[in-house]
Amino acid sequence: MKKTTPYRGQGHFGRGRPRRTAGILCAFLLLLAPLANSRHASAQEKSFLWKIRSGKNSIYVLGSMHFLKRESYPLKQSIEQAFDASKKLVLEIDLQSVTPQKTQQVTLEKGLFRDGTTLQQNVAKETYDLTEQRAREMGIDLRAMNPLKPWLVALTLTTMKLQKLGFDPGYGIDRYFAERAKRSGKSTGGLETLEFQLGLFDGMPRRDQEMMLRETLKELDRLDQGVEQIMQLWLKGDVGSLEEWLLAGMREYPEVHEKVIAERNRRWLPQIEKMIAQGESAMVVVGAAHLVGREGVIELLKQRGYTVEQL
Question: Looking at per-residue confidence, does 177 or 24 come out higher?
Fold first, then answer.
């Protein structure tokens, strides 16, 4: 997620600049990447955490990783200290108000075809055949997914692949801090709702949904290598390089980038500014893809005159 222009080359994971589809996949999934064990980090390295100041008021903004391993913990001391110093935790979605049952209900309401058609009838034969091949390689009977829209098939296959690699949303930073806030009695909040977030995918034109699925299928085999590279960049706090990995590919689809990243960043900005103005002691945790680039939350706050410090 520092190049700000689209990359159209054919580099490979692990060398040179990233393939454009690597950025698409990770950004679509709001950065489904692991976090390396912080005990291996150098003392000189930054973390993906910022302190935002205005006068005497300040808040913390942390770039999140949504899928981690158990051994990803403990996190860096600066991150833990920021949470301890905050009285309120603000996530993209307030996880205290979203039960697994509600998540399943909303996902199926938005992700199932309601007109009696199937995935096979809504994507090109080439796309469907590739989906069937990838599902078979993962030991999945695609017939069980045939009622699902392309965007949900893409998210489901990627989630299953990450879990096969050992990454679990139960160990994601959002879930980790939500559980800590619950135990410690901190108040929590959300910048948007589950319905809105899933609606971003469901509201995409059919061609973009199929593109999302097709690019995901092409990159599944390389996901482990891409995730490893992103992990190292996140751990070092390497904002410029991570921007290239996460956003360069998505910018080849400007309408998708605008809807999934830029528009939401602008929508969150007034909420974050209100917390600062009211002197709230808060830590805001959002996907790391939202914190990089000239349209990222950090740059937008700088433009608004706030003092921004990467910790």
Answer: 177
